[in-house]
Amino acid sequence: MKRFLILFISMFSILSCTKENVVEVKALFSTNKDVYQVDEEVIVTNESVVKNNILAFCKWTYGEEDAWSNAYTLDLEGVRFNKPGDYTISLTAYAEEGAGKDTYTKKIKVISENDIPWAEFDCPAVVKVGEEVVFEDKSVDYVGGIVTWQWEIGEEKSSYQSPRIIFDHPQASLEVQLTVVDSYGARGSVKKIIDVVE
Questions:
Q1: Would the N or C end of the chain have less CB density within 10 A of its end CB?
Q2: DSSP class of residue 65?
Q3: Which are the contacts of 157, defined by CB distance < 8 A and separation ≥ 6?
């Protein structure tokens, strides 16, 4: 019985040590945004983690299916795309001495300047205190469609597409700003100045 107990403890210790020393590689990176303009640098941050070993090297693959580029470096720098489209960035992280690897892939979108949402709105240049004013959205987006509207009307903020505001006191040169965001995260903004009078 004593011999059996010693054998059991020894096997448990071996299994415990083996389990603790299992190498786990988790490939991961982030980009500073998901939508870029043509020729804008894609900022990539390697966030890979290796448990019970060391991150030895990384293989990066990026581009389109027919034109892949490869880089063998821990950090990927200087990536730019010179035409609009959907691009894939893939990272394979390797542990030291072939102890393990993992792959992570992310897609980004590259657009031309013409694909950025065009923010625009209509409103009177002069409005009266106590009267309802409609700030009518006229924004346009041809890629992705506008999904959010962020208004700053003096101190007022609104996320409605076309907000209605009643001013309770006069204000000269009141700044109105509209920022629109499309489904890819691309933004467009416009500012106008109005006067609120008695």
A1: N
A2: T
A3: 150, 151
Q: Is 29 helix (H, G, I), strand (E, B) or coil?
A: strand
Residue showing tokens 């903020």: 157
Q: Which residues pair with 42 in a beta bridge?
A: 79
Query: What number of H helices and E strands is found in the chain?
Result: 1, 18
Nearest-angstrom CA–CA distance, 32 and 34 = 7
> 121-177 pLDDT, tens per residue?
999 999 999 999 999 999 998 777 899 999 999 999 999 999 999 999 999 999 999
Per-residue pLDDT tens for 99-113? Answer: 899 999 999 989 887
C-beta of residue 103 within 8 angstroms of C-beta of residue 37 = no
Dump pLDDT digits (tens) for 56-86: 999 999 998 878 999 999 999 999 999 988 9
192 burial (CB, 10 Å; 0-12 / 13-18 / 19+) is middle
Q: How far apart are alpha carbons 43 and 30 in whole angstroms?
A: 8
C-beta of residue 121 within 8 angstroms of C-beta of residue 136: yes
Whether 95 contacts 56, CB under 8 Å: yes
SS3 189: strand
